[in-house]
Amino acid sequence: MQQRRVPRGTSLLTVGTGVALAVVIAADGLHACASRRGHGLAAIPDAMAAGCVVVLGFANGHSRINMINRWRARIALRSARGRPGTTIICSGGAVRGSMAEAELLRRHLRDDLGWSGRLVVETESRSTWENVRNVAPLLADAQWIVFASNSLHAEKARRYLRRQRPDLARRLVPGPDHRWGEMAAVKPVFAAVGVWKLARLRRST
User: Cβ neighbours of residue 185 under 8 Å, at least 6 residues apart?
Assistant: First the structure.
């Protein structure tokens, strides 16, 4: 009986695929854990309660909104959907391109995603710390607050709000920033960067 031969490199390919899959799953798990941390309230108190969703801009090198900012805009939209009292605040300056990240987010939410509710832009921030500092005055009347970004970045923003405005941090509620399998190809990168930055933040406390 002739023995069937396995194509050369098959074992290496199998191992590589397994490792890649494990990395993707682990990264998704880190995002899932981060999405559950750092909230002052367990849930939005009432569907009609006036709240704010702060969508944090990502570096955008040209006048067309990039993939990461589109992802963050989707998170903002599903955070606000079904809650008519919600204001979406787009935050971010022109860090790498000629147009402010907040303006790119605003256009995408209005023109492409169909958001017709209240929307405010903050176009001066050049870092997450500044995002949080500059939107804080806009959150004074919010009964609940959500940061819309990838889960580890949103957790960092929540930590910054607790440092800057602990009174507002008590109004933070969980948002739908994590979905299993969503943007799986980029989550490992954001997980690695996010874990590193959160570790530095804890050491500086």
Answer: 24
Domain that holds residue 159: 18-203
Is 90 in a helix, a strand, or coil?
strand
SS3 118: strand
Structure tokens at 180: 């299993």
11 CB neighbour count, 10 Å cutoff: 10
Helix (H) or strand (E) holding 145: strand 144-148
Task: Give dist(CA 184, CA 192) in Å, integer.
Answer: 13
The whole model's pTM is what?
A: 0.90
In this model, does residue 166 exceed pLDDT 50? yes
Query: Does residue 8 lie in a domain region?
Result: no
Per-residue pLDDT reduced to its tens digit, 77-92: 999 999 999 999 999 9
Residue 13 lies in a domain: no
Query: Which CATH number goes with the domain that contains 158?
Result: 3.40.50.620
Band (pLDDT 50/70/90 cuts) for residue 7 is low
Q: How many domains does the chain have?
A: 1
Burial class, 77, CB count within 10 angstroms (exposed 0-12 / middle 13-18 / buried 19+): buried
Residue 85 maps to a domain:
yes
Residue pair 90/55 in contact (Cβ under 8 Å)? The answer is yes
Domain assignment present for 119: yes
Residue 109 DSSP label = I
